[in-house]
Amino acid sequence: MHTLSSPEQAVRDYLDTGLRSLWYPVIASWELGSEPLGITRLGENIVLWRDNEGVVRAIEDRCPHRGARLSRGWNLGDRLACWYHGVEVDGEGRIRDVPAVDNSPLVGKKCQRHYSVIETQGAIFLYFPTVEGEPVPELQLPRELSDDSYSNFLCVASWRCNYQYAVDNVMDPMHGTYLHANSHSMAEGNRQAEMELKPTESGFVFKKTDQAGVNFDWVEYGNSGALWLRLSIPYKKCFGPGGPFWIVGMAVPEDRDHCRVFFWRIRKVEGWQRQAWRFLYRTKLEKLHWDVLEQDRMILEALDPAARDLENLYEHDVGLQRLRRVMQKLAKAQLARRAEAESSQGAGH
Questions:
Q1: Which of 42, 129, 136, 206 is the most buried (most CB within 10 A)?
Q2: Angle made by CA atoms 302, 305, 311, in degrees to the nearest 5
Q3: For 246-272, what is each residue's pLDDT tens digit?
């Protein structure tokens, strides 16, 4: 087995909990009600809540007083009150009140990390910076999620595996005709294929050269402020109006051994056909798609955590090999930025 050098190991460790300087969907909108919600994403403990206007706030899930989880406390609208001693912290991570003490010097002090938030397409996105204070880029989603002529359903699942295995799985069109051979949408097509990789403005497409419009025949990786994977699956007319069935997916690390996957299931449908398809999806198709997703989950959760160290890859794996190199390059650059920022801070003291 190849022994990793110290820089290689640092990159691997960094990637295991997720790249930064990106927007990530962290929960579905329907998961956040009136109470504070504590989550772990990219190895960071975060609390989310809705203020009096329904706007989502997100800060580090730690009371600056004694470290209790703010997610166990009370939602006061523009702030949270800690259950332990009542300390109140706002959406910028600033202490607003220490009710047990008059004129506390802690009031007004910013002690908590806070996160930029966007709620769109049924999900709540947070921005995770590489270094604090960096400019927050615009979140640009694929056209199937930003164009109103498309209609979508969001599917969210928690998997007990590192998120990189979930990414690899989508960047692997050849598994469809094997793992999902008994599914309603991927039962047909060749079990052999020649593959090619083509660059795009935001990433690349990996596709079969001798088959299109039959199975899971291509996948696209893109980075537009968030990392996403896009594909389409041909659908028979009996499965309702509209053209190809689109899927946009994002895999979000919770920690080294758990992730959340977000899959938007999409069709381009307007007018009465939109409502007809949405009814058909909810009543007939949704369970079939969950069955396919469960096949992916069972395979990935059963992988050895060190499976990547024991691989023997071949030509159908060119897409995931390319994506791994892209992610490693981003990780190296982000580690360098962090080291530079830490060096600058050290020189200023």
A1: 206
A2: 90
A3: 999 999 999 999 999 999 999 999 889
The pLDDT of residue 213 is above 80:
no
Neighbours of 194 (CB within 10 A): 11
| Residues making up the chain, counted from first to last | 349
**Alpha carbon distance 80, 78 (integer Å):** 7
Return d(Cα 84, Cα 61) in angstroms, integer: 13
Q: How far is CA 136 from CA 3, 85, 145, 201, 240, in A?
A: 37, 34, 21, 21, 40
CA distances from 274 to 5, 139, 150, 198, 263 (A): 54, 26, 9, 33, 19
Q: Indicate whether 35 pLDDT > 80.
A: yes
Closest CA to 328 of 7, 22, 11, 10: 11
| Other CB atoms within 10 A of residue 205 CB | 17
Q: Take residue 270 and report the two structure tokens written for it.
A: 């307007």
CB 201 within 8 A of CB 249: no
Q: Give the residue carrying structure tokens 């307007």.
A: 270
Residue 29's Cβ-side half-sphere holds a number of Cα atoms within 13 Å equal to: 12
Phi-psi region of 122 (alpha: psi -120 to 50; beta: other; left: phi over 0): left
Which candidate, 113, 101, 102, places its Cα nearest to that of 64? 113
Cβ–Cβ under 8 Å, residues 116 and 30: no
What is residue 210's predicted lDDT score, i.e. its pLDDT? 80
The per-residue pLDDT for range 302-329, each reduced to its tens digit, is: 999 889 889 999 888 899 999 999 999 9
